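User: I'll paste a sequence; please echo it back and then give the predicted structure.

Assistant: Echoing your sequence first, then the prediction.
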Amino acid sequence: MAITPENTLNKMGHREDPVSIYEQHRKELARAKMGQTILFGLLFFGLLIFSVVTSQFFPDRLAQAASRVFEYFGTIMPSLEWDKLFMGRDDQGRAVEGSLTFWYTDLNTYLALIWETILMAITATILGTAGALALCFAGSRNLMQNSWIYFFARRFMEICRGVPEILIALVFVFAFGIGPLAGILAVAIHSAGALGKLFAEVNENVSQRPIDGIRGVGGNWFEQMRYGVLPQVLPNFVSYGLLRFEINVRASSIIGFVGAGGIGQELNRVISFYSDDRVLAVLILVVVTVTVIDLISERLRMYFIGKEQL
């Protein structure tokens, strides 16, 4: 409320001090804000309590289940013997039970499937990034004037990322058969939706000056995006693309459970055959692979966007 000479008169027609009017207005705003804060706070805690009760997220239940998690890992530990730990194969070419060689008898198979998983993730990330790049400009509120195109671009990206990769993979396994192709397509579609949203949000924070300059000299919409927007957002796009690659390596490992190729397919096999020690062997290789990829991605992000922005 602006303080004017007219509203400094009280009901009795006497002029009030503008400072008093300002303080009164400030207190009214503070009371209104306090009321909103209390309302949202009650709503938040109400939803939190409802969520805890619905999911049975109780401390005593967590304490009881935590010990069982360690029990499970105890069941899948291999039977290694220290005196045989580093022994190779015997004269008949068989690995000695209790040695690392015996535990990782199928190491070559695991490595080949992990390599296949990485290639699946690379291909899916490239396809997904290309899809996100095609959609993100149309899905940016500040760059797309046509509300219908903006609406459909946004909704399409929501559909792509709203359906879990494993469900999309099931559909493609039914259509294309068992193998990496189904997994690549499933991960690529999900990546296009997820990256498209991130790219669009980056686009909505760009400076309008380069865009206005290109528009002023007669540049069309595509030229505005290419020369006015893309140079501003490209480092962030690369950073998000590398982050998505790490996520896709993990996703490619999971979708193998439905026959979509990669190390997940082998993991599903050893679980089905109750080869518990082999489950741990595969999991260790997956964790090591993801860690190495994370370190490489961090180096690449530093190269593209600079260490100070990480």
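The chain has a mean pLDDT of 85. The longest helix spans residues 18-55.
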